[in-house]
Structure formats: C-alpha cells, structure tokens
Design a protein that fits this description.
The chain is mostly helical and about 400 residues long. It has 17 helices and three strands.
Length: about 400
C-alpha cells in the first residue's frame, strides 16, 4: 500500500493538504473524494531507500524537513498514551498522523501505518526509516511487541529520549554564551586591528624617532591583518574541513577520539558523558527483554567515541566467554570512570544491574551538567580579562608615543 501526499479543496473551496495511504493513485483520489474533498495535487511519498538517495542529492532542502529526536519523543509519548487507552495500533497511528505537525514525521508515520496494515510488524515497519528511528528504538519496540508490553516499552523509550534531549539542550545552552562572547571578542579585536589602529597610527607617520616596542608590535600586527587577513580565514576553513574529513575517515576519527580522551579538561567530561549514554541505553535495553550480547552490540554505536566503542566491543567478547560486564570494561587505560565500573559490578553482584545502570546514568548526567555550568561560569571572567588585556595593550601602544612627543616638546 502506497502513501500519497495530497493537496485538495474542501466543500468551501479552501485549500487543504494531508497524507493518505491507498493501493494506487486512482484509489487515493477516490478516497479523498469520499471525504468530501476534491484532489488538486497528488504525489506518492518515496520509500526509505529513495529518501536516502534524495538526502544525498538534496541535502540542503532535507535539512529543514528532517525528523528531530524531540519530535520522535513526543510522538512516542502520544502513541503510548493511545495504546494504553485501548486503541489498536493501526487506529493509534491514524490518530498520530492527524496530530503530528512535522511534515517529515507525518509522512514516515503514514508509511509505517501502511506497512503495518500490509502485515508487517511495527518494529519491521520502523526499520524502513533508519534516519528517524535508531536501532535502539527499533529493538526495544520489537521486544515490546513480542512480550505484549508495547505500551510500557514506548513509555520508557519516551523517557530515555526526553532525558537525552534534555541533557543535550542543557549542554548547548551552556555553550551558547561562551561562543557568543568569543565571536564578539574576535570581531572587536579584528575591528581594532584593521580599521581603528591604522587611523590612529597615521598621526605618528611623521615622527622621526623610533616608536616604542608595544607600538611597533601593534603596527606590525595591524599591517599583517590588513594584508593577510584572508590567510587566517583560509586557515580556519581548511582546519574545519580537515577536521570534518578526519571524522569521516575511520582511522582519522579513531585517532581524534583517542586524543580527545587524553585532554586534561575535556577528556574526563567526554568519559562521563559516554558512561551516562552507555548506562542509560544498556539499562533500557536489558529492562525491556533484550539479552546482554545484542544489547552491547547496539550500545557500542551510541557512546559517541570510537575508542570507547572498541572497548565496549572487546567487553562484549569477554562477556560472551562468561566474564562479568564490570570486569570486562575495567581495562588498563580506564576508559570509563572507575565509579561507573564499581557501580556496575555492585549491580551484577546484587542482581539489580538494570536499576544500577539507571543510577549510573543519573549520577554522570548530573556531573556532566555541573561541570558544564562551572566551565561556563569561568569563561565570562576569563574572556573579560583577556579583552581587558588586549584593550590595555592597544591603549598603551597608542599613548606611549604621545608621552614621548610631550617630553620632546618640553
């Protein structure tokens, strides 16, 4: 059964749009007319494989219609509520199509609904849209279907997605202010060096004595910026493009991820964030009936660091030989925080691994948030101090020749 995106006129002549599923274009038009509407434009929604190719060819338009995780979390919560109220899955999906505002997600849910009507399982239907639904999402839905606890699984999925999105939003919010200050500072310094300094220094051109060292440094820096500012711009662009190319290359990304973990300030922060993601996701999978080895295979792809993903893969291999999870992850390099390993081992010994993994996630999510807030609080005074030093240097470089001219006049 195909899914169509249509535009039609209602009985009052008002233009409306929507999505409908039917066996063909003729059936789709008849279905629209049966609702008292006159179809004006009808277009079949492409399959997931076609969408993937389209995303590669038309990346910019797709950027504005892609499905965000926050939208998936809201949809999941609504679906869990409908199923909990006694709605059959197909009827619940029908209601969702009418409620969802995102056109991209609306089309996907309509496609999922069509696949379920044709006899596909809900998890298999979601699997046709990997850009919208992660392997974790699909596996947990599959476990809920097989165990008859789809409503509970959807509620937990919504909780997990909302917590991850909330943490991401708090981190982005914490980073906005420092980045804004950095950009404004860079613009102010550039304006001082390119426009303000040359005009002020023009008054010293006829001065026949040697300028003080700070003034010469300021003039030299200003001349370089005026002549070679494009070199700096090209360097920044080349650096960003090189960083992007390195992340697309497995070896390059592995090297970068390893170096990030060794940084004195950001390394521990990345480890804690990875531990929180690992624990939150693994605990949810285990709690919903996914066995340990498949769950570890899924989790290793979401830790966000290739080196840590390799550690998880090696740990899964040790677990398959009968080793405990905590001991399998406790390697020499200490990739995960020792506290996380100890809590996992306690959870294994007490038989409450799922509950302990949730506590690990809570602990390290709070630590990451607290660390980000502390860093943000430190950035403001540091940036103000740096800007004050720059302004002081500029003022000193301008005033020193003036003081020397006054001494010569006397």
């Amino acid at each position: 059964m195909a899914v169509y995106d249509y535009t039609a006129l209602d009985a009052k002549g008002k233009t409306i749009s929507g999505i409908i599923d039917a066996d063909g274009e003729i059936a789709a038009r008849q279905k629209i007319r049966s609702n008292g509407q006159y179809p004006v434009n009808l277009r079949q929604v492409t399959s997931s494989s076609s969408d993937t190719k389209g995303e590669r060819r038309f990346a910019l338009p797709r950027m504005f219609t892609r499905v965000r995780p926050a939208e998936v979390a809201i949809m999941t919560r609504q679906l869990a509520t409908l199923i909990g109220a006694g709605f059959p899955l197909v009827s619940a999906l029908d209601s969702l199509v009418a409620q969802i505002n995102s056109q991209g997600l609306k089309k996907i849910i309509a496609g999922v609904r069509g696949a379920v009507v044709e006899g596909s399982t809900f998890a298999a239907a979601l699997g046709k849209y990997p850009n919208a639904f992660s392997p974790i999402y699909i596996n947990m839905v599959g476990s809920g279907e097989s165990s008859g606890t789809l409503e509970i699984v959807l509620e937990r999925l919504a909780d997990v997605t909302e917590k991850q999105e909330a943490l991401k939003a708090r981190m982005i919010t914490a980073m906005i202010y420092p980045l804004l200050i950095l950009m404004i500072s860079a613009l102010i310094v550039s304006a001082l060096l390119i426009y303000v300094t040359p005009k002020i220094m023009a008054m010293f051109d006829n001065l026949k004595q040697e300028l003080p060292l700070p003034t010469r440094l300021l003039v030299g820096t200003s001349d370089w910026f005026q002549a070679y500012w494009w070199v700096l711009v090209l360097f920044i662009i080349a650096f960003l493009l090189g960083l992007r190319a390195a992340y697309k290359n497995p070896k390059g990304r592995y090297w970068l991820d390893t170096r990030i973990l060794s940084l004195p300030l950001f390394g521990p922060l990345v480890r804690k964030l990875a531990a929180a993601r690992f624990a939150r996701t693994l605990g949810s999978l285990l709690d919903n009936g996914v066995s340990m080895l498949p769950a570890l295979g899924i989790v290793q792809n979401i830790v966000g660091n290739m080196y840590l993903a390799e550690v998880v893969a090696q740990g899964a291999a040790e677990v398959s030989k009968g080793q405990g999870l905590g001991k399998s992850l406790d390697v020499r390099q200490k990739p995960f925080p020792p506290m996380a390993i100890q809590m996992i081992q306690v959870g294994e010994q007490s038989g409450n691994l799922e509950e302990m993994l949730a506590k690990v996630a809570d602990v390290f999510e709070k630590e990451v948030e607290t660390t980000m807030l502390r860093l943000t609080a430190l950035v403001e005074p540091v940036m103000v101090l740096v800007m004050a030093c720059i302004v002081l240097f500029v003022v000193l470089a301008i005033c020193l020749p003036i003081f020397e001219m006054n001494q010569l006049i006397r």
